[in-house]
Write the structure tokens for this entry.
Amino acid sequence: MASAPPDTSRPVFRFAPSPNGRLHLGHALSALTNEALARRFGGRLLLRIEDIDLTRCRPEFVEGIEEDLAWLSIRFEPGLRRQSTHFEDYAAALASLRRRGLIYPCFCSRQEIRNVVAVREAETGRLWPVDPDGAPLYPGLCKGLDPREAARRVGAGEPHVLRLDMAAAITASGQPLSYTVFDLEGGEHPVPVAPERWGDVVLARKDVPTSYHLAVTVDDALQGVTHVVRGRDLEAATDVHVLLQSLLGLPTPLYHFHRLLLDDEGQKLAKSRDSQSLAALRESGITAADIRQRLGFV
Ligand code: GLU
């Protein structure tokens, strides 16, 4: 039997994990917060698999995500979106930015960037500015390349990323941008953005024809997401997403940033830190009801 078409008048929420490891309690908190808010606002809940990183993402982790979310009894609308099958959507967005002269190819390696930053710090005696994640701002080396020379190097197959020309992008967006944060009680407040603190961000990687910032922005719009619920660790990145929405003529959803779970050392739970997975907790006898209770969802 064909399922009924989605009710487009309802708010749309999404949980968007990356299948590069097993989910941990921090993911459970994010998924359950999405579920609670979707229910509170009468919304639909979508699942999106953010698997653009073809070297780190693996099919068994997608299966693991589905297994863990089913165990937690979180119900998503059928029809999961996998980013790796939509590279053409991100290419279209890049083409639009390219036509407006807002992106440029960059051939620098991370090491080259670090070296240039070290030299400039030594010359000026001042620390080089870093982005909200602590990475040095791109020092603009390839921004000044003659466009014909850059095109020749791209044509010759030289590995490169595509960067957003942040200053030009902010000028092109034309207006001071902001977005709205919503809370559980239905309260809302505006937040001005400062995307310049990220510098010339990467919109397409060497190995992947997009980046987190671009794919998440394009997909939220294509999926009609109206309410983005994500951890506070992604609050600063939202500034880049709001700028991209403005440049690409896409709507800006409402945002809610939930707390982060910390481990005994006060560090955010993360796959890279081998935080205990939901699967391991399950195997140790912990129930889904225990998880819901522990995270404050009863
Ligand atoms: N895929 C991202 C992650 O797992 C989250 C996506 C988002 O909420 O923007 O951290």
Notes: DSSP finds ten helices and ten strands in the chain. The chain has a mean pLDDT of 95.
